[in-house]
Specification:
Helices cover 69% and strands 0% of the residues. The radius of gyration is 22 Å and the shape is elongated. The chain has 2 domains: 70 residues; 51 residues, Alpha Horseshoe (Serine Threonine Protein Phosphatase 5, Tetratricopeptide repeat). It starts with 17 loop residues before the first helix and ends in a 5-residue tail after the last helix. It is mainly alpha-helical and 161 residues long. It has 5 helices and no strands.
Length: 161
């Protein structure tokens, strides 16, 4: 039993955005299926040029499937990291001051970023530090580096089971 009286074997709640991601993935799967069908038809045409184009077209579905699997795998790892940090009371807190329009105060974000960056410099092999750095990058508006930091955190993460 948990503190709120629910059985400890109760299922986890579905993460926000998961249903939408599955819906978009299903639509993309339909598109990939159509592309693969066209590629296969070109391969069966017997025309050398169409066979070449058909082979090239079949590479696209393979790339798409690989990228989808990679992103879902990362999302699952990030969720596991978040669950572990939440259990330890160490999730990043978004307490930066904002403008009336909702934009984060740049000076405050830069100041907070510096502190988090020092955490990574002090412990470069700690996935928690990289996880926090990812969210500091996100607050600073650098989504590319935020994603890189999350990938680094994921590569260092070893789940507790």
């Amino acid at each position: 039993m948990t503190d709120d009286g629910a059985p400890s074997s109760a299922r986890r709640r579905v993460p926000r955005g998961f249903v939408g991601a599955l819906a978009v993935t299903a639509l993309l799967a339909l598109y990939v299926w159509a592309i693969a069908g066209r590629g296969a038809a070109m391969l069966g045409s017997g025309e050398p040029v169409l066979i070449g184009i058909g082979a090239a077209v079949l590479i696209i579905p393979l790339l798409v499937i690989g990228l989808i699997v990679r992103e879902f795998w990362l999302a699952a790892r990030v969720q596991r990291m978040a669950d572990e940090l939440a259990a330890a009371g160490q999730l990043p807190v978004d307490d930066l001051p904002r403008s009336p329009g909702g934009r984060i105060d740049r000076a405050a974000a830069d100041e907070a970023f510096a502190a988090v960056r020092h955490g990574v410099d002090d412990a470069p092999e700690d996935w928690r530090a990289w996880y926090h750095l990812a969210f500091a990058y996100d607050a600073a508006g650098d989504r590319r580096r935020a994603r890189e930091a999350l990938r680094r955190a994921s590569s260092l993460f070893t789940p507790r089971d």
